# Entry
Amino acid sequence: KKSNFDSGEMKKLSIAGAAMLPLLTNSEIANAAGHMLPLLTNSEIANAAGPDWGLFEGKTGSLLHPVMMFSMLAYSISTALLGFQWRRQRTMGDEISALKKSMPSFGGASDINAAIQAAEEAGDASLSMQLRAAVPINEQIAELQKERKELAAASPRDQHFSQGALLAFLGTAFAIEGPLNTYARAGKLFPGPHLYAGAGLVVCWAFAAACVPAMQKGNDTARSLHIGANALGVGLFGWQVVSGIPILQKVW
# Structure
């Protein structure tokens, strides 16, 4: 409400109040100050109003973190599968080449069946037997070539890269959102397995992303470290889910 006193009246009251101070004893002043000091220094009272965080301060904001993290866990597994598909596609060439080296020469024939027919017509029983023995290997090569073609059409490399980038962004963002929401509601954080697992998970994501430039140059050590960091990250993700369920039950 607007005060009914003008500045002149307020000044008079202030002078009158100051004039009354000498009428109080030192013990009375000290006693009054002792009662006022806890009120002035109590952080809970001082911060009672606090900032208004809106949705992020209530149950909606609290549930946003677990919902996103459960989704990110499934997304992590999907991204990992795409990574293994790309690795499979990339290494199949060496496997096919090794199998082809174990095959006998076709002698200019277009395929193994034509080579067997040509060997039999030429009366070369030894070559015919070798070619017939190599038929299963030839079928395996054909299956691998078909699988590699299907993988190439699915483009797991590009999908893995895109999903990995999105996972790192959203995962890091909501790994930060969780503690911020806790602090907004409670005014403090609660160190424990859930918080430690989340922090370790973000470190794994950052390390895995840091390996990418070396991987693109064909560094197998970087590839192994990338896979290891992501495998550890999935393990930490599982730990975070287990340790986060009791927290979710409290919020709910």
